[in-house]
Amino acid sequence: MPPIKGYALFMTLARSLPDSAAEWWILLGVVALYALSRWFLAWRQARRDGDRHPVRAAFAEEEPGEGNAAPATGGFTSYRQFLGFVTAAVVVSLVVALTEAGLRVVLLCTIVPALVLALAYLDFRIARSARARP
Fold it and tell me: pTM for this structure?
């Protein structure tokens, strides 16, 4: 059976950790983008709700409390989070498999931040609806 186009690329991408400093900065940038967008959404919601200290409310959003339930699907608290994560992974995998060189870089630089922001918004919405339940 001849090798599938892109198979070697997936095996190259499947190794453990980034090798270069640039790859580490990209990885850290994605994590920072997620954290900042989650914090910004919580801060904006606290301001809309009229909280006297929206910054404190935004940082206190993720503190464990009585209302936090155990994760329902692995580490995810809902099937929406799980499906959002899987969809994002499939989209990134398709872009990597179906594009080459400069187009791949351009698409990943535009699609990955959009997917990270969408997942942060989804997580924020789920946390907000969990807080609203009695």
Answer: 0.71
